[in-house]
Each structure stands twice: as C-alpha cells, then as structure tokens.
Amino acid sequence: MIAKQRLPIAFILLTLVIDAMGIGLIMPVMPELIKSVAGGDLANAAIWGGLLTTIFAIMQFLFSPFLGNLSDRFGRRPLLLASMATMALDYLVMALAGTLWLLFVGRLVGGILAATQSIAAAFMADISHPQDKAANFGLLGAAFGVGFVLGPLIGGLMATFGPRAPFYAAAALAAVNFCIGYFVLPETLSKQSRRPFDWRRANPLGAFRHLGKLPDVRRILLVFFIYELAFFVYPSVWAYFALERFGWDARMVGLSLASFGISIAIAQGLLIKRLLAWLGTRGTVLFAFTMSALTFLVLAFLENGLIALLITPLTALGVVATPALQAMGSQRVGDDQQGELQGAITSVQAVAVILSPLLMTQIFAYFTRHEEVYMPGAPFLLSLALMIVCVVLFQSRRRLSREEPGA
C-alpha cells in the first residue's frame, strides 16, 4: 500500500468504525431515552425501539443504490464528506430531541447515511488492483468489527453522564472525521469513468435488474443475500439463545459479543490475506461457507457455554466470505459501475438485516415454547441449511472466461 493512499484509507476505515460505533454507541441508552420522550414502561420502549431499528434498515435498503449511483456520477469525495457532516448534525439533533418524531427523523436520516458504506467500498475498489480487492474489502469489514466492539463499550461508559451523552460523543466523532477527510481525502473516480445519473438504476429493484444482466453478478448477489440471512443469526438470537441454553446474564452475553466482534476484525483485517494467498478467491468463499456450516451445526446442539466462548474465533471465520464475494462482483463490472454494485450489495445486506431477525426469532420462540419440539438451537439449523444452499449455488455457477486473480 503506497504512502499517499494511507491517510485516505485511514479516513475510510475511521468512517466505517464511526458508522458501526454510532449504532452500538446509542444501544445502551435507547430504552431510557425513549422512555423519557415517549413515556410508558420498558415494554413500550422496546416496541418503539424496534420500529426505530426497522426504519433505519429500510432507509439503508432504499438509499444504498441511490447514493452508489450518485457517487458514480459526481465522485466519492463530495458524498463521503457530505455524509460525515450530516451525520454529525443528525446525532446532535437526536441528542437534543424532546419528542418521539424527532428520534424517528434522526434514525431515518441515520439509515440513509449508513448507505454510504457502499461509497466507501467503491472508493476501495477504485484504488485497488484486482488481486488486492478482496483483502482491501476485508479491511472495511475489520473496521466495522472494531466499531461493533467499541460502540456498546463506550456507550455504556458514556451513559453514566446521562442518556444523551453518547449522542454528543457520536456527533463529535463524526465532526472530527469530517475535518480529517476534508484535508486528506482525494477523488478516486476519474472524470472519464463517470456516467450520467439514471433514476431507473438508482433504486434497489432497478439496480438489481441492471446488474443482473451482467455475467454472473445476479448469482453472486443471490449467494450474498442467502449468506447474510444465515450469518445474521448471531445478532438476531444470540442473547436469547445464550440465556436459554447456557443461563448467561447480560454481562456474559456482552462479553461473548465483544469477543465475536474482535474475532471478526482479526479475520477480515489479518487472516483474509493469508487465506487468499493460500486458497484463492473462490477457495476462500468455500472455506468461509464450510466453517459457517460446521459452527452452525455445533451451536445447534451445544450445551456448554465455555465451549461456546472458546469456539467464538471459529464462528467469526465465516465473515471472510463477504469481502471475497465483494471482490468477485467488483471484478465483473466497469469502473463506472463500482458505486452501483456496492450500493446493491449494501441493499442486499439491509434486506437480510430486516428479514433475518424476524425469521430467526420466530423459529427460536416456536422451538422453546413447545416442550414436544424443544430445541433452542433450531435457528442455527436453519442457518446450516441456508449455507448448504449457498455452497450449491456458488458451485453451480457457470465458469467465466474472466477468472479471479488468485482463484
């Protein structure tokens, strides 16, 4: 990685850390904040909190292709800087919110801004040689993993100063990152590679339809969606599963999630380079699918909480599929479509985030309510089945004339 790229890449990685932190930072205080502005008890706050989470994911789904297409037209720099500035204002509004509708506006805007992950990925695609794309996309995943760990930790500490303190902290982080980016972030999309903005391609369905015409991209997006749907079983049911199966308290659940986040950061930031050199891009994807399938199978029947903690690094190895699949897709589109592709991928992830919790929690509830079919690990068996589908789809794809570097 040449020296002149290091500061811009540091800005991109810090942007994703702040994105992930911004989500986790406010989680510890949301119940108290919602109760203070909406009234009612904890159950009422949970209902409103669920709606706030859903609107966030829906906005991310809808706007990821839009922002990705905008970046293909106007470049990465202006949109990334605008998102940081707006994010700082958004957190400030939420910190000052005295009504529920302002909280909804804040989460709505936050979901739109979270869609800038697609622009960050397009930036990485712009500056990466084909053989380096998977590893560099892995850095993005590692940054998100770091933010996933730091967010709840700092949020819990800041909560001692009141339920609004984490929002002020998030606003300050976003403002500082904007200042850094203003001075160090170059434009990576040349004027020759830009294309006119097209509303028909700036929405999820239009983006999927257009990208689906490209060789093998439709299959990659489908595999990506099924994989995300399966892998999101961890944040969807882990807290409930660990309580039911292992009898853990909130502290142990938090410890296990922090360990999971650290393992994700290590896998995507460090291990993926070795895996790519050893197995190639296709082999890395299959390795990730296999490790995920095995850990899902173990967790479905595991009854020892200590072993669950010890195998956490193995459960996180499945995340290397994400950057490898991103790289495979990126190598199949032109320079003027990188933003559009990454926007579509972010939308796919958002749909999985919306659907997986609904599906996995319903399965968990059914198999823990009825004694005749009691099985808390049932959601992991569903994820195992989904991983098998991923392997079948991935292996059945037609061989392309354009091979992945290192495949």
Can you offer a commentary on this structure?
By secondary structure, this protein is mostly helical. It has a single domain (3-183, 201-395), classed as MFS general substrate transporter like domains (Growth Hormone, Chain: A). Helix content is 78%, strand content 0%. It has 17 helices and no strands. Helix 6 (117-127) runs antiparallel to helix 7 (133-158). The longest helix has 52 residues, at 250-301. It is globular, with a radius of gyration of 21 Å.
State the CATH class.
Mainly Alpha
Q: Write the element-wise H/E pattern from the N-terminal end onward.
A: HHHHHHHHHHHHHHHHH
CATH superfamily membership: MFS general substrate transporter like domains
Instruction: Kindly state the number of beta strands.
Output: 0
What is the mean predicted local confidence, pLDDT? 80
The number of helical runs is 17
In the CATH hierarchy, the third-tier topology is known as Growth Hormone, Chain: A
Which CATH architecture would you pick? Answer: Up-down Bundle
Quick one: overall form? globular
- Rg: 21 Å
Write down the domain tally: 1
Structural class: mainly alpha
Helix content: over 70%
> Main beta sheet: strand number and arrangement?
none
How large a portion of the residues is in β-strands, by DSSP E?
under 5%
* Amino- and carboxy-terminal Cα gap: 22 Å
Low-pLDDT regions: 399-407
